[in-house]
């Protein structure tokens, strides 16, 4: 979008930005959605212009009222626009009229007005493949559809059972239906524009998953498959991802679906799953080294819906960060994984850096691939 | 639970859901017998097998296998094979078995885990506001077994709710949100008891007339005119009735707050919070924003709504739990930038005109 800083242009302070005088002519432009801020020192004339920047008058007219210099104000608008503190009136009107105005306002903390709608369009058109449509997978799919994503491939061979209802997005009326069909119905209730490829198949091996993903050709993969184990499915998806240059998010399945937040992998940019295993092996609990684990088949493990909600919310946020494909909003789960503690409400993270001995391309050598993956 | 055995005969019991651990030094014979505890034999049969094994190995022992089982049962490490069936019908067991297993980790006994689910099923919740956070809270409460609700919201579902309301269905645009939510509850829970109220919570609303007197917990997510005003009104009502109040959503950055649980006499009330922030934010005075009507100007993501709702529901579970820890006194929010949590403690104001007397009464009673 072409943005003008000319004397005749109309600008306003973004509604979600607060301007706080902190003394000595310095003003804090505070983004309330993301709690980020930037400071500028302003002359009294320029500060007066800022106080009246409501988008109704053009820059030239406001400057005349406050005896301020038009080139100075234009220059300041360029700086404030780059830092997402101001926006042109035309962009504000477009956001107000948009169905996803809240998402646009949020992204507006990261993307200047000139780039905002293009970023949302990249999000909207991103092809998502969700492998495994259980508790975390179903929640993630629905949150993505609410966010504006419209193109999904759902891969799961299971049917909805009553025992799924206490932590998944499935409804009582879905019992007996294939999970991918039940989620497709939920997504279509949110938007009839959503397109869903339903793949009613179990994932058994690396070849199988490669074939399914090659057909789906996703831009982002979300791994929520924990059968036979999340380690195995992540290994298979990692293999596909590294060969095809497709980023993925490990959404759930670690340690019993509780509240673990998996890592995000962008081939050639961040640590891959195999890198993480090298580090995790090194970090293995020393107090349990050399011990034997008692074999206990048929375990029925604990789960709780709000913990699924937290895991899936972070997975959804990571997909959004990948989908906008910009340095302005990078994944927060590159090179780490996290855990939310039920008892203390605390989030903790383990750093999982790229490992040169892994052999993947995440050591920064292949910068062309990095650019391709990010932009 | 994972069970690890080290060469020096120490058994490590690891509660996976909570990461809690228990270490026991036991005899090699008891270690061997641990693998028998798979629910296929009765305690009596196990005891006999243990005696036979001890005899064949010519091992002397001072106590029976039964007493070892009793010890592990008391620690919440062992459960009866069909413990859920003793308290719940098959349909409830099918739906809540994994959740009951989680509760077992938290509460550490079958009886306490069972009691927690029953408290959830019996709890009468008044939910004020079915919006970006309220709708997700209700959806999760229904999932974990709550079934008695008074649902209050004055508005209808509209197109822009697509980005934030958990009950959004484009076929239902124009229907009252309270009724849409009530219909959802009826479709999902086993024994629903609900009342939908299509009305606002205003400054002059009579709270008891709005929600009735038969309520155990109030959840406030109503942010019009703003969350501070609706919370103070409800908090004052809750203090007089000694009812817990959960304030969720609606704060400034409003979609990723961790919520505040207000328990009269134990935690700060909304007036305490207001006083605290009046003092701590005294020097933080933004200029009057040039845009007068900013209602469509704030951001939000569905994933942040889900996070805030999940954090709120966890607080409710902890409130009803016997071992869920102390009720937090303070405020916190999830920051999207690096996924950090910014939280700080707020103390009760002993001079609070709303709840100060409760503290004095409590101190006197102690």
In short:
The complex is a heterodimer of chains A (375) and B (366). Chain A has 375 residues and is of the alpha/beta class.
Can you characterise this structure?
The complex is a heterodimer of chains A (375) and B (366). Mean pLDDT of chain A is 90; it is low at 364-375. Chain A contains 13 helices and 16 strands. Chain A is elongated and about 80 Å long. Chain A has 375 residues and is of the alpha/beta class. Chain B is α/β, with parallel strands linked by helices and 366 residues long. Chain B has three domains: 2-74, no CATH class; 82-118, no CATH class; 123-282 and 298-365, Rossmann fold (3-Layer(aba) Sandwich), CATH 3.40.50.720. Chain B is 40% helix and 14% strand. Chain B contains twelve helices and eleven strands. In chain B, helix 6 packs parallel to helix 7 (177-188) and helix 6 (134-144) packs across helix 11. Chain B starts with a strand and ends with a helix. The mean pLDDT of chain B is 89. At the A-B interface, strand 2, helix 4, helix 5, helix 7 and strand 14 of A face strand 1, helix 4, helix 6, helix 11 and strand 10 of B.
Query: Might you state the CATH topology name of the largest domain in chain B?
Result: Rossmann fold
Helix content of chain B: 25-40%
The CATH topology of the largest domain in chain A is given as Rossmann fold
Count all strands of chain B and give the number: 11
Layout of helices and strands:
The complex is a heterodimer of chains A (375) and B (366).
Chain A (H helix, E strand, L loop, with lengths): L9 E4 L3 E7 L2 E6 L4 E6 L2 H8 L2 E5 H8 L3 H13 L3 E3 H9 L3 H7 L5 H13 L1 E5 L3 H13 L3 E5 L23 H12 L4 E5 L6 H11 L3 E4 L6 H15 L3 E3 L9 E2 L2 E2 L7 H10 L9 E2 L11 H19 L12 E5 L6 E5 L15 H8 L1
Parallel strand pairs in A: 7-8, 7-10, 8-9, 10-11
Antiparallel strand pairs in A: 1-5, 1-6, 2-3, 3-4, 11-13, 12-15, 15-16
Helix pairs in contact in A: 1-2, 7-8, 7-12, 9-10
Chain B lengths: L1 E4 L4 E5 L6 E5 L2 H7 L8 H15 L7 H10 L15 H18 L2 H13 L1 E5 L5 H11 L3 E5 L24 H12 L4 E5 L9 H5 L5 E4 L6 H15 L3 E3 L12 E3 L7 H11 L21 H19 L9 E6 L4 E6 L10 H10 L1
Parallel strand pairs in B: 4-5, 4-7, 5-6, 7-8
Antiparallel strand pairs in B: 1-2, 2-3, 8-9, 10-11
């Amino acid at each position: 979008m072409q943005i003008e800083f000319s004397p005749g242009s109309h600008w306003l302070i973004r509604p979600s930005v607060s301007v706080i005088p902190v003394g000595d002519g310095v003003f804090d432009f505070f983004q309330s959605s993301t709690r980020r801020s930037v400071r500028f020192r302003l002359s009294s004339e320029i500060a007066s212009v800022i106080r009246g920047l409501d988008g109704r008058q053009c820059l030239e007219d406001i400057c005349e009222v406050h005896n301020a210099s038009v080139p100075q104000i234009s220059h300041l608008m360029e700086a404030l626009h780059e830092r997402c503190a101001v926006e042109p009136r035309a962009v504000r009107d477009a956001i107000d009229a948009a169905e996803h105005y809240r998402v646009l306002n949020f992204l507006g903390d990261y993307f200047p007005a000139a780039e905002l709608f293009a970023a949302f369009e990249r999000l909207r058109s991103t092809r998502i493949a969700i492998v495994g449509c259980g508790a975390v997978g179903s929640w993630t799919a629905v949150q993505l559809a609410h966010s504006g994503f419209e193109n999904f491939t759902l891969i799961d061979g299971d049917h909805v059972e009553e025992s799924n209802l206490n932590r998944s997005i499935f409804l009582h009326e879905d019992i007996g239906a294939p999970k991918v069909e039940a989620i497709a119905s939920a997504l279509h209730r949110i938007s009839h524009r959503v397109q869903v490829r339903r793949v009613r198949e179990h994932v058994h091996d690396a070849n199988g998953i490669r074939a399914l993903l090659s057909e789906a050709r996703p831009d982002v993969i979300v791994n929520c498959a924990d059968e036979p184990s999340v380690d195995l499915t992540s290994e298979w998806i990692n293999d596909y991802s590294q060969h095809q240059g497709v980023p993925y998010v490990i959404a759930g399945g670690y340690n019993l679906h509780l509240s673990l937040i998996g890592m995000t992998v962008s081939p050639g940019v961040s640590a891959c799953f195999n890198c993480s295993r090298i580090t995790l092996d090194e970090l293995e609990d020393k107090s349990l080294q050399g011990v034997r684990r008692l074999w206990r088949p048929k375990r029925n493990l604990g789960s709780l819906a709000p913990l699924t909600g937290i895991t899936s919310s972070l997975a959804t946020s990571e997909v959004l960060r990948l989908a906008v494909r910009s340095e302005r909003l990078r994944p927060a789960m590159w090179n780490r994984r996290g855990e939310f503690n039920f008892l203390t409400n605390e989030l903790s993270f383990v750093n999982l850096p790229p490992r040169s001995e892994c052999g993947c391309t995440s050591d920064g050598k292949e910068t062309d691939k990095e650019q391709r993956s990010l932009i | 639970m994972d069970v690890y055995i080290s060469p020096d005969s120490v058994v490590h019991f690891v509660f996976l859901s909570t990461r809690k651990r228990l270490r026991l030094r036991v005899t090699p014979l008891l270690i061997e017998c641990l693998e028998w505890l798979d629910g296929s034999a009765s305690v009596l049969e196990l005891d006999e097998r243990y005696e036979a094994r001890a005899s064949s190995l010519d091992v002397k022992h001072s106590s029976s296998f039964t007493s070892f089982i009793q010890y592990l049962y008391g620690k919440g490490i062992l459960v009866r094979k069909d413990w859920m069936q003793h308290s719940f019908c098959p349909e409830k067991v099918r739906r809540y078995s994994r959740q009951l297993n989680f509760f077992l980790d938290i509460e550490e006994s079958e009886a306490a885990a069972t009691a927690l689910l029953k408290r959830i099923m019996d709890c009468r919740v008044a939910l004020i506001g079915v919006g970006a956070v309220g709708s997700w809270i209700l959806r999760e409460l229904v999932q974990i077994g709550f079934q008695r609700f008074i649902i209050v919201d004055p508005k209808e579902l509209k197109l822009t709710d697509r980005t934030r309301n958990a009950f959004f269905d484009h076929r239902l645009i124009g229907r009252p949100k309270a009724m849409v939510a009530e219909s959802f509850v009826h479709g999902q829970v086993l024994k629903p008891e609900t009342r939908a109220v299509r009305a606002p919570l205003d400054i002059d609303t009579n709270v008891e007339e709005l929600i009735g007197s038969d309520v155990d917990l109030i959840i406030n997510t109503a942010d019009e005119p703003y969350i501070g005003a609706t919370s103070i009104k409800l908090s004052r009502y809750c203090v007089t009735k000694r009812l817990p109040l959960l304030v969720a959503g609606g704060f400034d950055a409003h979609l990723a707050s961790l919520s505040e649980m207000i328990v009269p006499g134990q935690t700060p009330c909304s007036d305490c919070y207001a006083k605290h922030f009046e003092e701590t934010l005294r020097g933080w005075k933004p200029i009057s924003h040039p845009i007068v009507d900013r209602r469509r100007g704030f951001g939000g993501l569905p994933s942040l709504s889900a996070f805030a709702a999940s954090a709120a529901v966890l607080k409710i579970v902890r409130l009803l739990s016997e071992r869920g820890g102390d009720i937090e006194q303070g405020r916190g929010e999830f920051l999207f930038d690096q996924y950090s949590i910014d939280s700080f403690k707020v103390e009760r104001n002993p001079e609070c005109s709303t709840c100060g007397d409760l503290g004095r009464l409590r101190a006197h009673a102690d």
